[in-house]
Design brief:
Elements (H helix, E strand, L loop, with lengths): L6 H15 L15 H8 L4 H5 L5 E12 L3 E8 L2 E8 H13 L6 E10 L5 E12 L15 H6 L1 H7 L1 H23 L3 E2 L5 E2 L11 E4 L4 E5 L4 H9 L4 E9 L11 E10 L3 H19 L4 E4 L2 E4 L6 E3 H9 L9 H10 L10 H13 L7 E4 L21 E6 L2 E8 L4 H16 L10 H7 L6 E7 H9 L17
Parallel strand pairs: 3-5, 6-10, 14-15
Antiparallel strand pairs: 1-2, 1-4, 2-3, 4-5, 7-9, 8-9, 10-11, 11-18, 12-13, 15-16, 16-17, 17-18
């Protein structure tokens, strides 16, 4: 039965009509609130009954009515605002016949205003003795009765407003997310990085290997893409003399949904001139120590039952060394393409017979190695074939000066010394075009404008992208990326 046909809905409509007929505005906007539940708790929780009896102030809060315990001519109510809950004592003797009658017509879920003095009950619960009461917003629909412990988690994501109302830990997750983002900004600002903004609508889908969302600009009559990364624009700024830049950005990738992937996600991406990928490994360790110390007060945390130690230095191991260690393949065998291809197929890797060695290595890495990287690990020296924007390694030009940070078997950050040789960059783009023609729709496009930028000389630079959503998952012990995004993408019901 749909809500509009239910008996409960009908009764609510009748109650709303009766309140209206009494001349009471259901949705006024002329109230001023002095206090919050948190400010009252912080100020008075340590007071005893005698100390509270000396407080002459009147306090006011507004919030959602969450529970009522009736005792005939009096009631205790629970009021929820942004900062938490507080108890209210509502008595007919204090409000009079009219005021108490109005209170009796309130429903769970209504937004109300209360004002009065503060005291503690016999059980030492801080309580507002209500002397003034108003309805601020009438709830037409009731809150779900059995929301706590709800097994249909998709209902929580689809109705985040209800999730936030009735699940305090969900609100706390998003308060913590906000704090993490503030700390990220603080960390970067203190190191003289400049926060910038780059286009979300781009003429080329560049800066990463990913399938973009495509749209059309009517006025310009041209196809455009939601950005998959801000990288190429940020490096234009470095070329222009902004030697330390960062952006907390929204990216969009036309990919599947999972506990680790949402098509719209948040990253912090930053670039530093005259630095290398090794400098950024040290900086990344410093960042995580800074976050953990400020958020948790410790470098040890538990994530989904696994104890993690963020104490640096973290192990640094190359892609090939990691494959050899965890897939039990001798290093010399990785130089034999046919043997490596056979191993990749054996491990269920996503490979084609025509793939170059580097892509075959990464198929093995994705299938076998990733899940074993539980404690923080820097995986370094990725193949050129999967690193179209990374600087070649001076010792082995088939590899790049790149790392990815893995924690709990998932990539948290990706960084490299930037490729600033325009000739080499053009060759990489051409290699990517070959991949596109072979059916790889995630391969990088040719970007002549970016190549022209490099021809004006970009200083030696290192850059990094950190997945903010996955970072928040880690520090809030959240099992799914949907738990840390207020409105995750969902399939149509």
């Amino acid at each position: 039965m749909i809500m509009e046909d239910s008996e409960l809905f009908r009764k609510r409509q009748e109650k709303i009509k009766s309140i209206k007929d009494s001349g009471i505005d259901l949705y006024p906007n002329n109230v001023r609130v002095k206090d919050t539940t948190a400010s009252l708790v912080d100020r008075f929780s340590s007071f005893d009954h005698e100390a509270l009896s000396q407080v002459e102030e009147t306090f006011s809060i507004a919030g959602r009515l969450m529970a009522v315990r009736n005792f005939g001519k009096a009631a205790f109510a629970s009021i929820l605002d942004q900062k938490g809950k507080i108890q209210a004592y509502v008595a007919k003797n204090n409000l009079g016949e009219e005021g108490y009658s109005l209170f009796k017509r309130f429903d769970i879920g209504d937004i109300i205003f209360i004002a009065g003095k503060i005291f503690k009950t016999k059980t030492d619960e801080l309580t507002i003795d209500v002397r003034e009461l108003r309805l601020l917003s009438k709830a037409v629909r009731p809150l779900p009765e059995k929301w706590h412990g709800l097994t249909d988690i998709e209902s929580r994501y689809r109705q985040r407003h209800l999730d936030l109302i009735v699940n305090p830990h969900v609100r706390e997750t998003f308060y913590k997310r906000s704090r993490i983002i503030k700390l990220l900004r603080q960390f970067m600002d203190e190191r003289d990085f400049l926060e910038v903004e780059t286009p979300m609508l781009q003429t080329k889908a560049g800066g990463a290997l990913a399938r973009p969302f495509k749209t059309h600009h009517n006025a310009l009559d041209m196809d455009m893409y939601l950005r998959i990364a801000p990288e190429l624009y940020l490096k234009r700024l470095v070329t222009g003399g902004m030697e330390r830049v960062y952006e907390l950005n929204r990216n969009f990738r036309n990919e599947g949904l999972s506990t680790l992937h949402n098509p719209e996600f948040t990253m912090m991406e930053f670039y530093q001139a005259y630095a290398t990928f090794e400098d950024l490994m040290l900086m990344t360790e410093e960042l995580f120590v800074f976050l953990a110390t400020n958020i948790l007060g410790s470098l040890n945390l538990q994530y989904q039952g696994t104890q993690l130690d963020l104490t640096p230095p973290w192990p640094r191991i190359s892609v090939k060394e990691a494959i050899s260690k965890y897939a039990k393949i001798e290093l010399h065998e990785l130089e034999n393409r046919e043997k490596t291809l056979a191993y990749a197929k054996q491990f269920g890797g996503n490979v084609n017979d025509t793939d170059p060695p580097g892509k075959i290595w990464m198929a093995i890495f994705d299938s076998v190695v990733e899940e074993k990287l539980v404690q923080p690990h820097f995986i370094t020296h990725y193949p050129v074939e999967v690193s179209p924007l990374s600087r070649r390694n001076a010792t082995d030009p088939s590899l790049t000066d790149r790392f990815e940070l893995y924690i709990c078997g998932r990539e948290i950050a990706n960084a490299f010394s930037e490729l600033n040789d325009p000739e080499d960059q053009r060759e990489r783009f051409i290699m990517q075009l070959t991949n596109r023609e072979a059916g790889d729709d995630e391969a990088h496009e040719m970007d002549e404008d970016y190549l022209r930028t490099l021809e004006y000389a970009m200083p030696p630079t290192a850059g990094e992208g950190i997945g903010v959503d996955r970072l928040v998952m880690l520090f809030t012990d959240s099992p799914s990326i949907r738990d840390v995004i207020l409105f995750p993408h969902m399939r149509n019901k």
